Amino acid sequence: MISFGQGWSFTEQQLKKGNDIPSEFEFLVARIADQLKIKTSAITQFLITEYPVGSVINWHRDAPPFDTIAGVSLLSDCIFKLRPHDKLKQTRGATISLPVQRRSLYTMQGSAKSEWQHCTAPLERVRYSLTFRTLRD
Questions:
Q1: Is the pTM of this model over 0.85?
Q2: Which of 20, 21, 79, 137 is the most exposed place for a label (fewest CB within 10 A)?
Q3: 41 lies in which domain range?
């Protein structure tokens, strides 16, 4: 994984400034911002991640300071799974599976990000993910 912009330190429970998003990716940040109907400056984190065959993303919710998460799945499709997460009881409900096609843009925000957990099913082919995050106000 390669990370640019603001990152979250799980150890220190705070944001950390990383390397600036390279100018070579400005066109992509602009396209994502346009789709989200936000200013390009609102995108404060950009990740490039390679997922080998068989890999998964385990159940989680994204770090608290992030608001909108947008991703582009490259090279292969994947299955995102979502389940409600009760913050007080730590109980989990039924799982929803959503296909994410390669070259598609997906977003998570609002209750989908704060009240639901997500993961991915094991991959049948190598997948790359471009992930963009904004910060909460």
A1: yes
A2: 137
A3: 2-135
